[in-house]
Amino acid sequence: MSNPPQAVRVWPSLASMRTDPGPALAHYALPLDAAGAPYRFAPSSVAVEDAWTVIVPTGGGFPGAWIRMREDDLGADVTGTATLTVGGKRRRRIEVGALSANATLTLSTTGAVAGDWIAVTRLDVGAYTVAFVNGGPAAGTLATMPVSARAFVRCYFDGTNWLLDDSHLML
Predict the structure, then answer these.
(1) Are the beta carbons of 157 and 117 closer than 8 angstroms?
(2) Looking at residue 53, what is its pLDDT?
(3) CA atoms of 46 and 159, how far apart (whole Å)
(4) Residue 14 dihedral angles phi and psi, to the nearest 5°
(5) The pLDDT of residue 94
(6) Quick one: which of 40, 39, 43 has its CA closest to 62?
(7) pLDDT recorded at residue 46
(8) Looking at beta carbons, which pairs linking 142-145 to residues 24 or more positions away fall under 8 Å?
(9) CA 51, 82, 39: angle at the middle one, nearest 5?
(10) CB-CB contact of 102 with 80 (8 Å)
(11) What is the spatial distance between Cα 124 and Cα 151, in angstroms, rounded to a whole number?
(12) Of 2, 71, 6, 69, whose CA–CA distance to 40 is shortest?
């Protein structure tokens, strides 16, 4: 038997969500100070509070965390070496002519929760590589986009480290 759908509860602030007890089941919340971002309560989640993407209730109740629901959004274009976060939006592009040297994109764990992903589409066909580096404790290069080729890389977060999910060249 499945649980019935829950209505969205409107909260005055993220702080009020934090100090209230955690609910027993998955619920949805809309805090008025979160720029219209909805949250879903994940029972038994052990995600770490970061005051924006993860809110952990301190008022007792059931264990878990309020997880900010992600949008399929396009962030700022990548123009060279950078650190990417889920808070900076999950989809990125490297436009034609954007690179002037080899680039390293470090995937930061800041604000990331298990199941998050970041994808980069490279349209630039310049003679430069683009390396994707795990910003988690395991570190290391996850993938490298080759020179002079359009490509795509998607990585996902397992709760501790970023891992390669998909990569390919594009026609």
Answers:
(1) yes
(2) 86
(3) 9
(4) -65, -35
(5) 95
(6) 43
(7) 86
(8) 142/107, 143/167
(9) 25
(10) no
(11) 9
(12) 69
- Domain regions of the chain by residue span: 8-68, 82-169
Per-residue pLDDT of the chain (171 residues; tens, 9 = 90+): 455 556 789 999 999 999 999 888 888 999 998 877 899 998 888 888 888 888 999 998 899 999 988 776 788 999 999 999 987 788 999 999 999 999 999 999 998 888 889 999 999 999 999 999 999 999 999 999 999 999 999 999 999 999 999 999 998
Residue with the two structure tokens 């490509």? 151
**For residue 19, what is the DSSP state?**
H
**CATH number for domain 82-169, candidates 2.60.40, 1.10.10, 2.60.120, 3.40.50:** 2.60.120
Q: What is the CB-side half-sphere exposure of residue 137 using CA atoms within 13 A?
A: 3
Q: How far apart are CA 120 and CA 136, in angstroms?
A: 18
Nearest to 84 by CA among 110, 102, 106, 52: 106
Beta-strand ranges (E) seen in the chain are: 8-11, 28-31, 39-43, 54-55, 64-68, 82-84, 91-94, 103-107, 117-122, 130-134, 141-145, 151-157, 162-169
Residue 154 φ then ψ, to 5°: -130, 130
